[in-house]
Amino acid sequence: MTGQGALGRGVRVGLLMAGVPAIPWAALALGIAAVEFLRGGDHDFAARDLRYAGLLTGQTLVAGVLMGSILCGGLVLASRAVTRAWGLSLVGALLGALVFPAVFVVVAVGTDAAYAPLVLTFLAWPVMTLVAAAHSADIVGLTRRRAWLTARLGTRAPVA
Asked: Which of 82, 97, 102, 107 could connect to 87 by a Cys-Cys bridge, CB 3.0–4.6 Å?
């Protein structure tokens, strides 16, 4: 367990943790903006929704990279003392729970603190904590149970 490639795996999990709760709201805002533009409705409303879709998408990417980097750094440091997969899962759950408020802030800013997105994002918090816990040993490199985390980007499978 050298931690080689751990940052990339951590960022992938961070992007997953940030994207699942936030990107649907960006898609919804983009759809509403398209309907308003095509229907000839309120163009100011459509422009605002387009701006929210861009904000949500960009901030989600930034938050995902930040969350993944913090998750990876904490797990690599913890892997020096903790050698069991279940111990790393506990550390990953703790770190996942601590970094998830970044997504909450992204959704609050991108939706003007609307109640439904905030409540659903709040309900996603324990689920994304479990996602971080489940992928912790794979991030560090202790196990290789999830192929999408350990596959190198840009490589192709051999053609038979």
From this structure: 82
- Count Cβ atoms below 10 Å from residue 31 Cβ, excluding itself: 12
Coil, helix or strand at residue 79 = coil
Number of neighbours of residue 91 by Cβ within 10 angstroms: 21
User: pLDDT by residue (tens digit) across 50-80?
Assistant: 999 999 999 999 999 999 999 999 999 999 9
Token pair belonging to 125? 């918090």
DSSP letter at 83? -
Residue 81's CB: how many other CB atoms inside 10 A?
8
The Cα-based distances of 135 to 33, 45, 88 in angstroms read 36, 40, 9
In this structure, which amino acid lies at residue 68? G
Model pLDDT for residues 112-133, shown as the tens digit of each residue: 889 999 999 999 999 999 999 9
